[in-house]
Design goal:
The chain has 139 residues and is mostly helical. The chain has 5 helices and no strands. The protein has helices at residues 2-33, 37-73, 78-105, 113-119, 122-136.
Length: 139
């Protein structure tokens, strides 16, 4: 029963974290394309609040995932190592979003809205592969 509760909470926190990871780069697209200072300030505020929320949500998601791994999946196959590697990539993506956000706040963005459109696709692909690894356990 503990396993089911941990897994339920982990899924909810992961879904919430990824919702932010899907939306924040979309705000970056709009920030990169925006020319109006007032609109840029509003978008920047939205991005900063979303990043704080995403960071808070990521902590229990990672803690619960770690707990599940230690309790139930330790040494259970190569799929878990691939998944954990991709989770590290997701954490790096999250951190890089902070770097980009700081560049926007300092007025130092050098990337186009098109670059951010491509950047926005990464969490979708990461989530797809991670979920496939967990469900299919291919190796």
């Amino acid at each position: 029963m503990l396993y089911l509760w941990l897994k339920t909470l982990h899924i909810v926190f992961i879904a919430s974290w990824f919702a932010g990871l899907f939306y924040l780069p979309r705000i970056f697209v709009n920030l990169a394309a925006e020319t109006d200072a007032n609109a840029s300030a509003r978008l920047l505020g939205m991005a900063q609040r979303l990043y704080r929320f995403m960071t808070i949500i990521s902590i229990p998601a990672l803690i619960l995932g770690f707990w599940l791994w230690i309790q139930f999946f330790w040494g259970s196959g190569a799929w878990i190592h691939a998944k954990l590697t991709l989770v590290a990539v997701v954490c790096a993506y999250h951190w890089y979003c902070q770097v980009l956000l700081k560049q926007f706040a300092a007025g130092q963005n050098t990337k186009s809205h098109v670059w951010y459109r491509w950047f926005n696709e990464a969490p979708v692909l990461l989530m797809l592969v991670i979920v496939a690894l967990v469900v299919i356990k291919p190796f």
